[in-house]
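Reviewer 2 asked us to include a model.

Predict the structure of this chain.
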Amino acid sequence: MINGTKGRIMENDVINLQSLSADAPLLKYNDWPHLTVKPRVRPTVEAKALRPDAPPRLHKKQLQFHQSLAKSRFVFGGNRTGKSVCGAIETIWYATGLHPFVKIDHAMDGWVVSLTRQVQRDVAQAKILQYLPPEWIVKTVMVSGSSFAPAHGVIDFILVRNVFGTVSKIGFRNCEQGRERFQGVSLDYVWFDEEPPADIYDECLLRLLDRGGVHWVTMTPLKGRSWVYDRIYLRQEQQPDLACFWMSWDDNPYLSPAEKQFLIANLPPDVLESRQHGHFVASEGLVFPNFTADNILEPVMLPQPDAYYIGIDPGYRNPTAVVWAVSVGENLYVISDYEVAGLTVADHCRAILERTKNLGWNLKQVKILIDSAANQKTSACEVSTATQYRQHGVAVDTNVNKNLAQGLLAMKARFSSADGRRNLFVFKNCVHLLGELRGYYWGDGEQPQKVNDHTIDALRYIVMDWERSCHTPSAPLNTLGQAKKHLIKSLAGKRFG
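Predicted model (structure tokens):
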């Protein structure tokens, strides 16, 4: 131990006397002779040297984000997936006018919006300063701290040179300031680093209105079923100028396998989906948590189908929902959907027949399944709903398996089985079905919440019928049949042997 300014070294101390001198070299492990157990050095993993001719590592999801021309872009990414780098680089490209994929012809003014001042300083602001060359910076104005060391303070705005010979402005805001701090200016772009409150997001959209500006949001969805979940995630296909991107650890080529394994081993399972893949944390309550972007396809021309299906969930107060699907080999593809309320059966039938004709289907080849409740008569009509459909040219079959538990399990297994195989796919134009699948949650007990499930029910009837046809075993041959089969084989052997 050491007492006083001069210090007194006890016999069992391990401090080298020379280390008390100001000009003494740093202690090394061999300078500690009294330690019975030598300190161990944590092994470091050295990066493998790339060959001089090796291609640069490419983050494909980042490239897709930068190439998108959508006015609204959302990046749902886990931690360490590269989403904040996307936002920072895009901001710099807009400010300097050097964007490789977007034509910029004038100085651009924009905001970088963070949740708090501290997060602004440590994340978004740090990324901007990391990738923005210092020679492009004209002036840095601080809220706190010194402009000579802006990384250690909180920046108000940065004036940036651009390729037009003028100056662009990157402003910084944080949500702690409240919605009023976001009023009164016109902007060309806004980058939201993490999910902002809905009122601040809406206020920023108004700032973009005058200049026809764009915005992008880079976020890890940790807030569950928030406004982003309801307005963006569930309804993404219904907004033509919106693009959504998902980034996981596997998409980041700069994240080592050892680091990924360490994070997987040390993060709780209930947050791993959001931290690793950028999925919404509320997904543990989803009926179909394994329904992902891998089950969603761009509309394409399929091979000759083996079977054609139309599933109908008739509605009275609720909307009538219809899905069109085909089976090709071991896969089932949902290629179109329909959901409308307030119309008569005759109106729905006209829409169904027209859609089927536009798809090029022969109606006689289509199996049309409808909820068996359609056999019941309503107070408004003397004939059943099923009869009305048939009278208007839609030959419905009410012989459907309505076992809810079996149907949900069958759909879930087809979306992704235990071994990772996927056999059930939905075309991207099926906006009603996609929204329902993403927002279908368990309620109390073993029953899902009975809301927004109309196209899901229509699809469930199809899946159960398809399962039945796929797994119907051939009838066993009786004794006479087996004898005939043996005779035919023996005759064939004699004739062609």
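Residues 1-36, 45-50, 472-481, 487-497 have pLDDT under 50 and may be disordered. The first strand starts at residue 72 and ends at 77. We have added this to the supplementary material.
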